[in-house]
Amino acid sequence: MTEKPALTLYLAAPRGFCAGVDRAIKIVEIALQKWGAPVYVRHEIVHNKYVVDGLKALGAVFVEELDEVPDDRPVIFSAHGVPKAIPAEAARREMIYVDATCPLVSKVHIEAERHHEAGLQMVMIGHAGHPETIGTMGQLPPGEVLLVETVEDVARVAPRDPQKLAFITQTTLSVDDTVAIVAALQARFPAIIGPHKEDICYATTNRQASVKAIAGKIDALLVIGAPNSSNSRRLVEVGRAAGCNYSQLVQRASEIDWRALQGIRSVGISAGASAPEVLVNEVLDAFRDRYETTVELVETAKESVEFKVPRILRAAD
Ligand code: SF4
């Protein structure tokens, strides 16, 4: 029998589920227990196929638009947040709806509204087309939120009054890229008002820091996450920027390109905020099948954040 080659696996921590994702999944599960199937969910509740398929098996029906939901069935809005018009339409149709928007995204919505009421126009740093960006921009009337994605966009943005501006950010951006965009905004619009740091959430920040901590030790980085998961894609970029040239997103073990990994001695593993630990374990097992592995945990922060589910789903209510 041929001996397996030796490999060190550096397991980043924190990784995987954040408090907002955990809460959103619980909301769908409790809603199914409370109202029975089908419960409709507008947009993937979190960006992970494994999670979505598991909830489908319990009776959740995923749709992209509210008009696909019958009036008499409950509907849940995803963790990424929704434009204001969506819950307003659900209320008009007298539907039962539960908003699973992460409280850290809702906090950004409230910031945007507060600035708007104070007469400021908003600049949002975010990714065009991402549901969180659509949801946050949809808190204010059209034209009140200007989107910038890059430092170059800052030169092009054309506010109504440069003296009356504030900025907000998507919660799942690259911490380092955002610092550069904020600096460009402050250089061009010295009066711009912003949050104390940015709106990037604790989970995004912590996962990026742990990837940075392992990037210098490893020959390859695998981030478990979905191609439409913003925070997972940022982890791949952070790994590459921190010096790990082979930095790849995989949804699960079957997507690992073993040929590309030939000859490596060390691999870093992390997971985006919407990727369940069961998929991390699947990847670790796939490595154990092929290598004599040593696992080293690299923990750069401890997390204890928890969010309650909305009152309508709490047992005592
Ligand atoms: S990544 Fe951050 S903002 Fe998004 S759901 Fe998780 S905790 Fe909330």
From TrEMBL:
PANTHER family in the record: 4-HYDROXY-3-METHYLBUT-2-ENYL DIPHOSPHATE REDUCTASE (PTHR30426:SF0)
Reaction(s) the record says it catalyses: isopentenyl diphosphate + 2 oxidized [2Fe-2S]-[ferredoxin] + H2O = (2E)-4-hydroxy-3-methylbut-2-enyl diphosphate + 2 reduced [2Fe-2S]-[ferredoxin] + 2 H(+); dimethylallyl diphosphate + 2 oxidized [2Fe-2S]-[ferredoxin] + H2O = (2E)-4-hydroxy-3-methylbut-2-enyl diphosphate + 2 reduced [2Fe-2S]-[ferredoxin] + 2 H(+)
Keywords, in A-Z order: 4Fe-4S, Iron, Iron-sulfur, Isoprene biosynthesis, Metal-binding, Oxidoreductase
Binding site for (2E)-4-hydroxy-3-methylbut-2-enyl diphosphate: 47, 80, 130, 171, 229-231, 274
Binding site for dimethylallyl diphosphate: 47, 80, 130, 229-231, 274
Species of origin: Gemmobacter aquatilis
The protein, known as: 4-hydroxy-3-methylbut-2-enyl diphosphate reductase
Required cofactor names: [4Fe-4S] cluster
Top enzyme category: oxidoreductase
Similarity comment text for this entry: Belongs to the IspH family.
Molecular function per GO: 4 iron, 4 sulfur cluster binding; 4-hydroxy-3-methylbut-2-enyl diphosphate reductase activity; metal ion binding
Cofactor note: Binds 1 [4Fe-4S] cluster per subunit.
Active-site residues per Swiss-Prot or TrEMBL entry: 132
Task of the protein: Catalyzes the conversion of 1-hydroxy-2-methyl-2-(E)-butenyl 4-diphosphate (HMBPP) into a mixture of isopentenyl diphosphate (IPP) and dimethylallyl diphosphate (DMAPP). Acts in the terminal step of the DOXP/MEP pathway for isoprenoid precursor biosynthesis.
EC code(s) of this entry: 1.17.7.4
